[in-house]
Amino acid sequence: MTQSPLSQSLRAWMDVFMHRSMRGWTHFAKSTGLSMPQFSILMQLHHRGVCGLSDIRARFDITTAAASQLAEKLVQAGYIERHEDPSDRRAKKLKLSPKGAKFIQQGINQRHRWMDDLVKNLSAAQQKKVAEALDILTEIAKDVDRHVDM
Amino acid sequence: MTQSPLSQSLRAWMDVFMHRSMRGWTHFAKSTGLSMPQFSILMQLHHRGVCGLSDIRARFDITTAAASQLAEKLVQAGYIERHEDPSDRRAKKLKLSPKGAKFIQQGINQRHRWMDDLVKNLSAAQQKKVAEALDILTEIAKDVDRHVDM
DNA sequence: GAATATAGTTCAGCCCGCTTAACTAAAAAG
DNA sequence: CTTTTTAGTTAAGCGGGCTGAACTATATTC
């Protein structure tokens, strides 16, 4: 089993990066009193915009009951809004409230700050190189997601 | 507030990559019946090798009691081994059992497979570029971790 | 329009993680 | 050697996530 240099590099980067960001996110979620499931729903709404409750159910592979209860708590806490879908009055649409959006943005900014710290000491040439490479990766990753994503 | 091209690229990449890997990991953990806290401990042990129970306590910011109970469950399930520290017989050292190590490796291999799929269609020139960039990032990320890490 | 299917809510009950508190045992301090 | 500190275990109790089941309300099918 041969490993290309790129595979090696990807794996090394994944190890370091994943470990670090996981820690950051869990710490951030915890610091606010939100549970991980609750926090994950906020992240999903951030990523997807408006979601049906049934999308949440499918995405996290939980029962409708569980999704409903989690959503209710987030509504109570003021992080999300829940509205009837006009086109199907049985369905509910969820989206981040201003408070929820602001909250998630803070978390993202924290991650960004870490990354900015990471690269600020690179030379201009290195920065250019890295930026180009990441753009390539992001482009193809988005493309893959388009086919697989829920 | 000016944003360098690199900052932009890092942020875009982080969004896509984090979202995707989180989903992969939680799905993997869930598929095995392990809770996220239990799974996180296995990941920590994979990352760190042998850990004291007190390291777990500090890393996840939980009480010693909680750490002890989680460890006990993982020992019962056969994922980790717990031994007395010869140099301080009050302390316990935790490490992955063969079963635990194999299990985590499977999860990592799944992530790797995703990444390999991601890059397999890049040209040789692009692959080289991306590999170089990731190596640069990995190197500095490790360096930062050395100072901040627990 | 009656029968059926679908989207959510609510509730009882279970399991789990977590904390506090009481405890054991070993190490460190005096 | 006694006191105090440190590492971990154990048990009781709380709160949260999850499921299954019973229910409401809307949409779909025939």
Explain how this protein is built:
2 copies of one chain form a homodimer. The first copy, chain A, has about 150 residues and is mainly alpha-helical. Chain A has a domain at about 35-120: Arc Repressor Mutant, subunit A, CATH 1.10.10.10. Chain A has 6 helices and 3 strands. Chain A has helices at about 5-30, 35-50, 55-60, 65-75, 100-120, 125-150; strands at about 50, 80-85, 90-95. Chain A has a 3-stranded antiparallel beta sheet. In chain A, strand 2 and strand 3 form a beta hairpin. In chain A, helix 3 (about 55-60) crosses helix 4. The model of chain A has no long low-confidence stretch (mean pLDDT about 90). The first copy, chain A, binds a DNA duplex (30 and 30 nucleotides) through helix 4 and strand 3.
Characteristics:
three-stranded antiparallel sheet, elongated, DNA-binding, homodimer, 150 residues, mainly alpha, 6 helices, Arc Repressor Mutant, subunit A
* Largest sheet data of chain A: 3 strands, antiparallel
Instruction: Summarize the helix and strand pattern of chain A as letters.
Output: HHEHHEEHH
State mean pLDDT of chain A (0 to 100 scale): 90
In CATH, the architecture of the domain at 36-119 in chain A is Orthogonal Bundle
Q: Determine the most extensive contact between two protein chains.
A: A-B, 55 and 55 residues
Q: Give the CATH H-level superfamily of the domain at 36-119 in chain A.
A: Winged helix-like DNA-binding domain superfamily/Winged helix DNA-binding domain
Number of strands of chain A: 3
**Which structural category fits the helices and strands of chain A?**
mainly alpha
CATH class of the domain at 36-119 in chain A: Mainly Alpha
Shape of chain A: elongated
What does the oligomeric state look like here? homodimer
Strand order, largest beta sheet of chain A = 1-3-2
Question: How many helices of chain A does DSSP assign?
Answer: 6
Q: Report, as a whole number of angstroms, the end-to-end distance of chain A.
A: 32 Å
Strand coverage percent of chain A: 5-15%
Q: Report the radius of gyration of chain A as a whole number of Å.
A: 19 Å
Helix content, binned percent of chain A: over 70%
CATH topology of the domain at 36-119 in chain A: Arc Repressor Mutant, subunit A
Uncertain stretches of 5 or more adjacent residues of chain A: none
